[in-house]
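Section 5.1 Outputs to date
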Amino acid sequence: MKMKPAVPGRASLNAPRDPYRLQCLDRALAVLEYIGESDVPLSLAEICRSMSLHKSTAHRALMVLERGMLLERTPDDRFRLGLKLYTLGNRAVEQTDLRAQIQPSLRALSRRLGETVHLGVLQRTSVVYLDKAGPATRVCKGSKTGSSNPAYCTAMGKAMLAWMPQTEVHDLIDQMNFVRLTPKTIGSRQELMLALERVRRRGYSIDDEEAELGARCIGAPIFDQDHNPVAALSVSCASVRIQPHHVPVIAEHLRRACSQISASLRFHRDLRSRVVGSLAPERN
């Protein structure tokens, strides 16, 4: 059984007094987060021991979360994440402003290439799929909106990691558990660092059947006004149909679309800043 050790001070349980803190809510959220980071369902005793909680305290938090369907209990009296979190996660994705701004470009690129195009963001060490457009194919079966894949074996993940500040990249890589999803999946820190260097040289990333056999993906980042990657697009193709010599042509279309989106996001952010600045005093 694999469990991640509890992090001291998780969910600010020992933080200084805050007028907006509710201790019982903080504890429940900490328990929820800890269960979510485990690879297996956890028992009450395991949660108490790992999080240094009294049995009655942990039990109350679990009952509240179970009643709200954020957790569910297994037949052997262990706890895992509940399906209501999936519903809430999908709703959060639907309400994301970034998705609404980028969707027209996403669909235009898909129509131009005749392939599936994904929009994703980095959430810790995973890529979360915010949107997709394109023909109904079997390519990238695991890329449903709201789902996620490890960043180290996806084109979007590598595209964002390649242009992140090095200190942040190293911190994220320290948290990665390199599992080979296919025989071609990157399997170590050294392999990933070499792959990111190739991404920076090329200007785009490639997932050549690393996340799913039969799927070849090309990715490129979307930057904010400080040139930090805030999202990425990927074009997903069947590897038998799109050969390696087709990749640079697709990548050029992809990079151009990402560049236009980045410029648009910077424009809208600058415009909002100017409007807000004209209505209220500037804050430091």
